[in-house]
Design a protein that fits this description.
By secondary structure, the protein is an alpha+beta fold. It contains nine helices and six strands, in the order H-H-E-E-H-E-H-H-E-H-E-H-E-H-H. A four-stranded antiparallel beta sheet has the order 3-4-6-5. A two-stranded antiparallel ribbon has the order 1-2. Helix 1 crosses helix 4. The longest helix is centred in the middle third of the chain and has 16 residues. It is globular and about 40 Å long. It starts with a helix and ends in a 13-residue tail after the last helix.
């Protein structure tokens, strides 16, 4: 899938304007946090297999498991939710099942007095490639790999992941989002709508990424509730640990 230079530049400009300055040491995990605990061992006994089907809503995409370069979901739609940037662009799209659930999640948050905005949903291989190269140029490859995926290894390419923020437009894809009421609400309620907080605090050595309370991943309600109850990462849930992480500083 080809993307125009203009689209890429708009994407880079958007993330630059919202201050996408991730500090890889902003969330320090305690010593031993990455050790598989008893809960994870219980999961291992269940022999849950890693899902590598790119069409599945439970597909595992990380530093080990890659999507085909040409993979583009066929059911991408624009969810009827407000976004940080108003116009419909590629990165507002999600797969239909995830988009429908996102609408319900946003509505539930609104009923509880909270306002959410979408920031970045689907990204094609080419868009992710341009963004990753931008971050490497800006921060160096080692740092970029702690918060941005190598092309083909991004959950955003699945159409099942989305970055969100609060309606006040502060702490956009930034560590301070973790301390907002919106982040606290998502931690308690996202699973009810099929979403998990994909990159958990204290799981950096397993996921390979810094804590990202804004990054939601749709896996379906049943699995999301199990993962939230267990307090594990998707890698632990699917017995795909540990991730062989390049040097990330953690």
């Amino acid at each position: 899938m080809k993307v125009s230079i203009a689209s890429v530049l708009i994407g880079i400009l958007l993330l630059s304007l919202i201050g996408y300055e991730i500090q890889p040491n902003s969330f320090q995990s305690n010593e031993g946090d990455h050790i598989i605990n008893e809960t994870t061992l219980v999961q291992a006994e269940r022999l849950i297999q890693v899902d590598t089907n790119p069409e599945s809503v439970t597909v595992l995409v990380n530093k080990h498991y890659k999507l085909p370069d040409e993979h583009t979901p066929e059911d991408l739609v624009y969810p009827n939710v407000p976004f940080y940037s108003g116009e419909n662009v590629e990165w507002h799209k999600m797969r239909k099942e995830a988009a429908d659930s996102l609408e319900k999640l946003f509505s539930a948050a609104k009923r509880d007095g909270l306002s959410l905005l979408g920031v970045s949903g689907y990204r094609s291989y080419d868009t992710q490639k341009s963004l990753f190269e931008h971050y490497v140029e800006r921060h160096g490859e080692e740092k970029a790999r702690t918060y941005s995926a190598v092309p083909g290894h991004s959950e955003h390419q699945t159409g099942l992941a989305i970055d969100v923020t609060g309606g006040d437009r502060t702490c956009v894809v930034a560590p301070c989002f973790a301390y907002t009421e919106e982040a606290k609400w998502l931690k308690e309620n996202a699973a009810n709508y099929g979403f998990i907080i994909r990159y958990l605090e204290g799981k950096e050595q397993i996921t390979g990424y810094i804590y990202e309370p804004w990054h939601l991943r749709y896996v379906g309600i049943e699995m999301a509730k199990e993962i939230a109850t267990l307090g594990v990462s998707l890698e632990e849930y699917m017995n795909a640990v540990p991730v062989e992480v390049e040097s990330t500083g953690f």
